[in-house]
Specification:
Elements (H helix, E strand, L loop, with lengths): L9 H8 L15 H12 L13 H9 L13 H13 L5 H14 L2 H14 L3
Length: 130
């Protein structure tokens, strides 16, 4: 078997072993922005570079709502589908422009509902691990 640089990297091993939550486990009830940020930080903190800005902030999320990349919250509360969108956005925006991320999400949602699209994203991410 061929040795790769990833076999010797602790960070790569942690990323490869990181499991995203299933859709049904995201949130049981709608949450306000401060709760949403805590939830997203829990799921995405492994992708954050120490000392740098968090992957998603309140102003970023408000901008995604304004640009219709994600749905508007209902009475300032965010649902399970918002969390799923934002996990996908948080991961993909690390390597793609947000306009491309928005287009990928749009294309996926033309074929599948949010729960199925999120499930495929989680499965494909784990199948392409190091």
């Amino acid at each position: 078997m061929k040795n790769t640089i990833f076999e010797h990297s602790e960070v790569a091993k942690q990323l490869a072993n990181h499991k995203l939550p299933e859709y049904k486990d995201l949130v049981k009830f709608d949450v306000f922005m401060n709760q949403l940020l805590e939830i997203l930080d829990e799921y995405l903190s492994i992708f954050t570079i120490p000392g740098e800005q968090k992957i998603l902030t309140a102003s970023m999320i408000n901008n995604y709502v304004f640009k219709n990349i994600i749905e508007h919250p209902q009475q300032k509360k965010y649902s399970r589908s918002h969390v799923a969108y934002l996990i996908v956005i948080g991961i993909l925006k690390q390597v793609l422009p947000i306009s491309d991320v928005a287009e990928i999400i749009k294309m996926a949602l033309k074929q599948y509902d949010i729960e199925v699209a999120y499930k495929y994203f989680v499965l494909n991410r784990s199948m392409t691990s190091f």
